[in-house]
Design goal:
heterodimer, A: alpha/beta, six-stranded mixed sheet, four-stranded antiparallel sheet, globular, B: mainly alpha
């Protein structure tokens, strides 16, 4: 296993089908696309440690998260940044408290200052989640997911609740962050256009089975590889 | 100058306060366990906690006498270990209050914890935060409005406890005479003025508690429970 690499090879029985995932990735952006209930969020949950596979291996940067009969690595030790669908901001904490929640007292917060500027949320720090818009919530949740300096970023439908303009802006910010942080990013979407715009690779998940889309074209804005997602 | 000896009020507040503190700690721990963990016999444990809700106070009082009486296993244990008796003391009244108010507080805490979205806790975990800190800073504050309602219910139930208290603590003026006992024995003795006085006092306590909870909920509804 090389540094900066995520290895996923597991199966997990769900209600109506078996989720079977087998891929590895480096510091790139991977899009998971597929219909609702196809197992995309379960994959993110298995990587984060919220759910456990039935068998197989999940490992990141040499650290084994899950391997067959071994005790799974605790969620707290996996160093994953997870942006949940609908963002799951703590409603009783201010934006600033949300972002700083996982940071240790006395730790270097310069990256958070930088993130706040980059994401344009520096003026929102005193506000509470119910006082900000959907796009602002998305950016706050992204800042929070990155605040504890994770080794991997998992995004569950990060753009689904946003209007076109805000979606475009948030996607650009995500690309900038990825350029700067160089960590593996997996994001779940049901929109082909989001996947095409952002991802280095696209995996289609349907009824628990995955199919990787072929790379048809390279180049494009922000140096991303643009894929033509010609789905089955 | 008060027209009557106020010791029933002070005793009732003491008994209800101590039993509510104990009920709060036990209920929060039990409810948290029951919401997040599955284990063998969970439904039986749940039924046992809720049992006092459906039992007549005399049955609870009888069970407490069997357990905490002079010849009861817990009564002997407490006397040998700490040198005090439960029967015919205010401690007996506090234990009776504890038993009858536990299911009310437990149900409120259970409902409150069930309302806390597990994703919030998972966010904390993925950020590397310990379970205890997540409980302190996320789970408990978000469940607090429901827990507070349970605290008030438990306190009100504790202060109004009569049947089981009479059986285990008896009626000893100045020692185990809580407000409900004072009302009953004043009525029995034909002292209607005294009975009405205590009825007004205990009703005022109830109205004040409910009003305060409603005010607090309204004041904090904006921040808590909304995203």
């Amino acid at each position: 296993m090389t540094a900066g690499m995520l290895t996923v090879n597991f199966t997990k029985k769900l209600d109506n089908f078996e989720l079977a995932m087998d891929f590895s990735m480096e510091d790139e952006i991977l899009a998971l696309i597929g219909p609702s209930g196809s197992g995309k969020t379960t994959l993110l949950n298995c990587i984060a440690g919220i759910s456990q596979p039935d068998e197989g291996v999940i490992a990141l940067n040499g650290s084994v998260f899950y391997q067959g009969s071994q005790k799974p690595l605790k969620i707290q030790k996996r160093r994953t940044g997870y942006l949940f669908q609908d963002y799951a901001l703590f409603p009783h904490l201010s934006v600033e408290q949300n972002i700083l929640y996982g940071t240790k007292r006395g730790s270097d917060l310069s990256h958070i200052t930088e993130l706040s500027k980059l994401l344009g949320i520096a003026g929102l720090l005193e506000k509470y989640p119910h006082q900000i818009s959907g796009g602002e919530k998305q950016r706050v949740a992204l800042a929070r997911a990155l605040a504890a300096k994770p080794d991997i970023l998992l995004l569950d439908e990060p753009f689904s609740a946003l209007d076109d303009e805000t979606r475009g802006r948030c996607q650009e910010e995500l690309q900038k962050i990825h350029e700067r942080w160089k960590i593996p990013v997996i994001f779940v979407t049901h929109l082909k256009a989001d996947a095409e715009k952002l991802a280095d690779r696209i995996i289609k998940v349907d009824q628990g089975q995955m199919a990787e889309q072929g790379l048809l074209e390279r180049g494009g804005q922000c140096g991303r590889q643009i894929l033509k997602a010609d789905f089955i | 100058m008060m027209p009557y000896d106020m010791s029933p009020l002070l005793l009732s507040l003491k008994v209800a306060s101590i039993s509510t503190i104990c009920v709060f700690i036990v209920s929060v721990a039990l409810a948290r366990l029951m919401v997040r963990k599955d284990f063998f016999g969970k439904s039986i444990v749940d039924a046992l906690i809720l049992l006092p809700l459906v039992l007549p106070p005399t049955v609870i009082g009888f069970a407490l006498i069997v357990l905490f009486g002079v010849n009861g296993p817990l009564g002997i244990l407490l006397e040998n270990l700490f040198g005090f008796r439960v029967v015919f003391t205010w401690i007996g009244a506090a234990i009776a209050s504890f038993v009858v108010s536990l299911p009310l507080m437990y149900q409120s805490a259970l409902a409150a914890f069930e309302k806390v979205d597990p994703r919030w806790e998972n966010v904390g975990r993925t950020m590397g935060v310990s379970e205890w800190r997540i409980f302190q800073t996320v789970t408990f504050p978000l469940a607090w409005p429901g827990i507070l309602a349970g605290v008030i219910l438990a306190f009100a139930r504790g202060i109004g406890e009569f049947g089981a208290t009479l059986m285990i603590a008896g009626y000893i003026p100045g020692v185990t005479e809580t407000i409900p006992l004072a009302i009953y024995f004043a009525y029995e003795a034909g002292q209607m003025d005294k009975a009405i006085f205590w009825v007004v006092i205990i009703s005022a306590l109830g109205v004040a508690a409910i009003s305060w909870v409603n005010y607090w909920r309204k004041k904090n509804a904006i921040r808590i429970g909304r995203e």
